[in-house]
Design a protein that fits this description.
Rossmann fold, AAA+_ATPase, six-stranded mixed beta sheet, ABC_transporter-like_CS, ATP-binding, single chain, ABC transporter ATP-binding protein, 10 strands, binds adenosine-5'-triphosphate, alpha/beta
Length: 282
């Protein structure tokens, strides 16, 4: 079935991203991919293959050096920082490895923060359902520091779902969770796709988590090397084992510390100066 532009939730066209430094690294090398509305896609690949960079560029948290990124029909490059911040608050949800919870706010306040910032009034029944599904009903008055890693991850997931964003970007959403909680969270993500027509793009290393997706896209050395519809956990694991037998990828530059709640803050406008490019050996 052909996908029309109205069916596309997120698109990256010929996207290229290079990180500067003494040895510049091509993190995304002419990436061309569309994520259809109402679908879940897992983005997989070896460490350093560009998964987080793809997510950050797709979500408007980082600007590519070349190429076009669209959320729906909105071209992110044409947006001012203010409008980009509004778009991230209103149309996009994030679940990151570092949680990005606000330490001074309790669980309930953290969950409702994106609604407050985008001046939306969340549907109380939906908030209650999300809180119930992530199993946080008895922790609403706790601060993040009083929660386990898995509980903090669940707060981040609830926070991403409450505003019913068009697209939810997740970076290892189940990384800190035990198997049962991970299954609950993945079912919840699956249900917002199936019942609410939202779109999920999820970076994961876990073939089981990826098997909840409709599609698995595999990156290696900043390029898409596999694009598989519903491959199942076993086939995913086989592909990853094959990629894992490649030489490890050098990580020449350390990533700067994650800024405080970056998706809710204005874009830092970090642009990489043009530099000669050295391709990594794959
Ligand atoms: N801010 C940065 N400055 C310099 N290099 C960076 C920066 N962020 C990422 N890189 C480099 O870009 C490449 C892609 O990184 P990215 O984090 O996107 O990979 P990944 O597939 O998400 O890795 P992992 O699975 O380990 O999280 C890596 O070689 C990494 O070292």
């Amino acid at each position: 079935m052909s996908v029309t532009s109205a069916d596309v939730a997120v698109s990256l066209e010929h996207v290229r991203k290079t990180y500067g430094g003494e040895q510049p690294v091509v993190a995304l090398d002419d990436v061309d991919v569309r994520f259809a509305r109402g679908t879940a896609t897992a983005v997989m690949g070896p460490s350093g293959s560009g998964k987080s960079t793809l997510l950050h560029c797709a979500a408007g948290l980082d600007r590519p050096d070349a190429g076009t990124v669209r959320i729906g029909s909105t071209d992110l490059a044409s947006m001012s920082e203010k409008r980009l911040t509004e778009l991230r608050r209103g149309r996009v949800g994030f679940v990151f490895q570092a949680f990005n919870l606000v330490g001074a706010l309790n669980v309930e306040q953290n969950i409702l923060l994106p609604s407050r910032l985008s001046r939306q009034r969340p549907d109380p029944a939906w908030v209650a359902e999300v809180v119930d599904r992530v199993g946080l009903g008895d922790r609403l008055r706790h601060r993040p520091a009083q929660l386990s890693g898995g509980q903090q991850q669940r707060v981040a997931i609830a926070r991403a779902l409450v505003t019913r964003p068009e697209v939810i970007f997740c970076d290892e959403p189940t990384g800190a969770l035990d198997t049962r909680t991970a299954a609950d969270v993945l079912s919840l993500l699956r249900s917002v796709v199936d019942q609410a027509g939202q779109t999920v793009v999820m970076v994961t290393h876990d073939p089981v988590a990826a098997s909840y997706a409709d599609r698995v896209v595999v990156l290696a050395d900043g390029r898409i090397v596999q694009d598989m519809p519903q491959p199942g956990a076993e086939r995913i694991a086989e592909h990853l084992a094959h990629l894992g037998s490649r030489q490890p990828i050098a990580r020449p530059a350390a990533r700067p510390a994650t800024p405080f709640a970056p998706h809710l803050a204005p874009h830092p406008a970090a642009q990489t100066p043009a530099q000669p490019v050295v391709r990594r050996e794959g």
